[in-house]
Structure formats: C-alpha cells, structure tokens
Amino acid sequence: MSDQAIHVRLTQVRDYQFSVDFGGAVPALVCDEPAPLGAGTGPSPVQLLAAAVGNCLSDSLLFALRKFKQAPEPIRCDVYPEVGRNDQGRLRVLSMRAVLTLGVPAASLVNLPRVLDTFETYCTVTQSVGQGIAVQIEVLDSTGARVK
C-alpha cells in the first residue's frame, strides 16, 4: 500500500444517489440507497463496506500465497453483512462473514497453513473494521473443503 494520501469525493447526483470520484485514472462509481429511500442504481454503503472487507481479505490472501510463489487463482470472496438494529433501535452492520474460496485444491499449495494463520492480520480494512464489527473469516479450497 502506498503512503500517498487517499482522497475520495462524493457528489450528490439526485436524492440518495452519489457519484464517487476516486481520482486519477480510476473510473467513478455511482452509489445509491436501495428502495424505498433510493432507487438502487448502484451499490449501497453497506455493500461498499462489505466489498472493501472482501477485497482487502482477497488481496491479503493472494499476496501471502504469492510470497511463497503459489498460484491460488482465481480467488473468490463472498461477504455476508448482517444488518440489524442496535440497542437504540438504529440500523447498524452488526457483523460480517467472509468466505474466501481458493481456485485450486488446498493440497496443491505449499505453506498454506502458515499463510492461513497470518494473512488476515495484514488486511488493513478488515483489521480496522473488525475493531467495531465482528468479522468471521472462512477459507475453502476449490473442492469446497474448509481449510480455515
């Protein structure tokens, strides 16, 4: 990760729809609340949070495996945020479950147990989010066998 300052600008398009500008060559993204507040024309804030957690975990797992010259591709990550009401009755993301699936059988990867013990500690987003929201992480191989 770069030490460069990160800046994201959101500009209202209409109602609850916002254009998200990441700067540089990164294309803008349209975000929107689902009905009845918005029109659901783009990902919601909860979906973006889940995507950030899943993307960071996937990147961390891939990076850790590639350090050992392993090729786990294609990695898939499914993130399931649980949204519910807190003690004050306000909607919150209460927890998340991330299921990463390797593109190959576990037996074909050298040092997989070592990677699985450490990869998530390097995930900037998940470690930060995890301080306030419980994040459960599972890893499956391409055969569906649970390896973590």
Any key phrases for this structure?
single chain; 148 residues; alpha+beta; three-stranded antiparallel beta sheet; three-stranded mixed beta sheet; 3 helices
Label the structural class: alpha+beta
Q: What's the number of helices?
A: 3
The averaged pLDDT comes out at 96
What are the secondary-structure elements, in order, as H or E?
A: EEEHEEHHE
Overall morphology: globular
The unreliable regions are: none
What's the quaternary structure here?
A: single chain
Strand content is: 25-35%
Strand tally? 6
Largest sheet: 3 strands, antiparallel
Query: What is the straight-line distance between the termini?
Result: 26 Å
Radius of gyration: 17 Å
The order of strands across the largest sheet is 1-2-3
Short summary:
Helix content is 24%, strand content 28%. The protein is α+β, with helices and mostly antiparallel strands and 148 residues long.
Structural overview:
The chain has helices at 45-67, 112-118, 124-129, and strands at residues 9-14, 17-21, 29-31, 76-85, 91-101, 134-140. A 3-stranded antiparallel sheet has the order 1-2-3, with no helix packed on it. It has a 3-stranded mixed sheet with strand order 4-5-6, covered by helices on one side. The protein is α+β, with helices and mostly antiparallel strands.
